């Protein structure tokens, strides 16, 4: 498939070259998406940043997200899920408080005082190293828009076709190198674990 994430990033960058020269920011999802995003940013001459998100899971079904949070207080909610799950404000607040603390911990560790790249009015290319269900990257798309991105492109080396179709509900475009029928391995060639497949 790919020798490693660097090769996967170079292969992905070939498909993204038409965006070179535009007002683009490449955003890698930690951890696996960052080395892939590095190669993309280098190839198309775009700034590189990370995008940090946390899904807000329904308490009795954590895999079902009622929203997502990002840095700088960004918060997006799915009101249909909230209504269908009959979530109370206090339940939502408990989940958000826990996830916000984890987001801030990760932000402090990864950024170490460096500011985010401003997305206002720009095209955000959100990169991961492989997508199964797409839950995390959908949240990242929502956060990128909330942070001001005018256009959002999902880019990944590997993504099943049915997931790519669903992602187009959140993204303006989806770019991938390989579209296997079953859940993909990561870009490094290591099979995606059950845990990571559920979370992504």
Please describe the topology of this protein.
Blueprint lengths: L4 H12 L7 E5 L4 H12 L3 E3 L2 E6 L2 E10 L4 E3 L1 H6 L4 H23 L11 E5 L7 H12 L4 E8 L2 H7 L5 E6 L15 H6 L1
Parallel strand pairs: 1-2, 1-6, 6-7, 7-8
Antiparallel strand pairs: 3-4, 4-5
Helix pairs in contact: 1-2
Can you offer a commentary on this structure?
With 200 residues, this protein is α/β, with parallel strands linked by helices. The chain is 39% helix and 23% strand. It contains 7 helices and 8 strands; from the N terminus they run H-E-H-E-E-E-E-H-H-E-H-E-H-E-H. Helix 5 links the parallel strand 6 (123-127) and strand 7. Mean pLDDT is 89; it is low at 190-199.
- Provide mean pLDDT, rounded: 89
Number of helices: 7
Q: First CA to last CA: what distance?
A: 20 Å
What is the overall shape? globular
Report the helical percentage: 25-40%
């Amino acid at each position: 498939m790919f020798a490693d994430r660097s090769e996967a990033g170079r292969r992905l960058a070939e498909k993204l070259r038409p965006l070179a020269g535009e007002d683009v920011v490449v955003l890698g999802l930690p951890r696996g998406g960052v080395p892939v995003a590095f190669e993309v940013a280098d190839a198309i001459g775009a700034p590189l940043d990370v995008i940090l998100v946390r899904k807000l899971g329904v308490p009795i079904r954590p895999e079902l997200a009622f929203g997502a949070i990002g840095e700088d207080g960004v918060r997006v909610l799915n009101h249909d899920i909230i209504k269908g799950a009959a979530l109370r404000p206090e339940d939502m607040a408990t989940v958000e408080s826990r996830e916000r603390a984890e987001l801030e911990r990760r932000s402090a560790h990864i950024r170490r005082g460096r500011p985010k790249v401003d997305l206002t009015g720009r095209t955000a290319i959100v990169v991961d190293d492989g997508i199964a269900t797409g839950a995390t990257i959908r949240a990242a798309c929502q956060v990128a828009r909330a942070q001001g991105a005018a256009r959002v492109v999902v880019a990944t080396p590997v993504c099943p076709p049915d997931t790519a179709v669903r992602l187009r509900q959140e993204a303006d475009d989806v770019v991938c190198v390989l579209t296997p029928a079953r859940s993909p391995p990561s870009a490094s060639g290591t099979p995606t674990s059950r845990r990571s497949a559920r979370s992504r």
